[in-house]
Amino acid sequence: MILRWFYSFVLMIASPLFLYSLYKSKPNKPKFGQRWKEHFGFTPRLQHATNAPFWIHAVSVGEVLAVTPLIKTFKKQNPSASIIITTTTSTGAAEAEKLGELVEHRYMPVDFSFTVNGFISAIQPQALFIMETELWPNTLHCCQLNNIPVTIINARLSARSEARYKKFPFVFSLLLKNINFILAQTKQDAQRFVNLGLKEQQVSVTGSIKFDIKVNHEQLTQASLLRHSIGQEREVWVAASTHKGEDEQLIKAHQQLLSKKPNALLILVPRHPERFLSVQTLVEQTGLSVITRSSQQAITDDTQLYLGDSMGEMMVLLGAADVCFIAGSLIGDKVGGHNLLEAAALKKPILNGPSYFNFKQITEQLVELGACTICKDSSEITDSLMQLFDNKKIRLEQGEIAFSFVQKNQGALQKTIDAMQTKGAIQTK
């Protein structure tokens, strides 16, 4: 209890900075409006719930996208179930709204007991499912006090995180006693949770639901239309989910590529919408000819860079390219990479930077299979692009290998739902 009080005190001191960052107005960032009160436990009751809802927490856009197939599958199998999804960010909220009548959305309260209790009082959830490892001590504690079972789905724990928790075991102990079940992505993830003190019967390996990607007809059609507007004969590559500090390296790689492939086009897609304008300015300062997706201008033969400044279209932009570079992997230990599986599901050869600890196993498996190449800097990115653009046969073979890898690992969605039902977190059909 003393540890939790100390944690709450530290959170109270740090929360103004956190909230300032959360609410700070940025270009292309959706506004919270009057809904900011939800972060403080002033949560409106659900409008359409006919029974105690299942509560799913997905912190932001990436987690909402990942959990969407699970929600759709679960709702199909349990049509009378009520689902509430919480996010912390407004961009996550905008993505959650696309689920329509499948869910109702509320903002996640800041992790103080009084705010969480306000949320629970208004919503009355029957179970909490947390996407990956977004763990908050007071939220978990309040759930246990209210007999709300907590299940971590698609859980992962890196070796680095395990080592960090072992140095400060009291931190994990705050969480451990209030977690009912862990549904881990891999055996290694599961073992790390057990190493930290979780009982083996509380941990199951269900795989990563991110493998259960469904590329729909509309996405393929839009990708085909975009590629047609670019030109079928041009060399096209995409740099997906870039962070500050990476754009310069990727632009440099493209400039080097243009010296050898003057018709090449780079589709550059920043991770966060608030960076769209600054990245556009950066590109314009380099002298490259740039067109933004939001402008809806026609892509000409002179266009050298296409800026993906839109939300929810990653599969379309990936699908229009010949080669995919997955960003978040060029800036040391700050990010740790992003999901490679969307590109793999689209049969694309993949390039990745050297920092990918958040997707270590998937990345290393794709590298071992020959479907992914690790590039440590802009020169290596250019060299790899040249090799792939000069050899269509290899490019297509790598894409097929990547696609087969995704197909062989699918099935985690149903395994996850089955495990939740077996362990009692879901008790009605």
Short description:
The chain is α/β, with parallel strands linked by helices and 429 residues long. It has helices spanning 2-23, 61-77, 90-96, 113-123, 137-145, 159-167, 169-176, 187-195, 217-230, 247-258, 276-286, 314-319, 341-345, 360-369, 378-389, 392-408, 412-422, and strands at 54-57, 83-87, 104-107, 127-131, 150-155, 181-184, 203-205, 236-242, 265-270, 290-292, 305-307, 323-326, 350-352, 372-374. A seven-stranded parallel sheet has the order 3-2-1-4-5-6-7, sandwiched between helices. The protein has a seven-stranded parallel sheet with strand order 10-11-9-8-12-13-14.
Overview of this structure, please?
By secondary structure, the protein is α/β, with parallel strands linked by helices. The chain folds into two domains: 2-212 and 410-422, Rossmann fold, CATH 3.40.50.11720; 217-408, Rossmann fold, CATH 3.40.50.2000. It is built from 17 helices and 14 strands. The protein has helices at 2-23, 61-77, 90-96, 113-123, 137-145, 159-167, 169-176, 187-195, 217-230, 247-258, 276-286, 314-319, 341-345, 360-369, 378-389, 392-408, 412-422, and strands at 54-57, 83-87, 104-107, 127-131, 150-155, 181-184, 203-205, 236-242, 265-270, 290-292, 305-307, 323-326, 350-352, 372-374. The strands form two sheets. It has a seven-stranded parallel sheet with strand order 3-2-1-4-5-6-7, with helices on both faces. The model has no long low-confidence stretch (mean pLDDT 92).
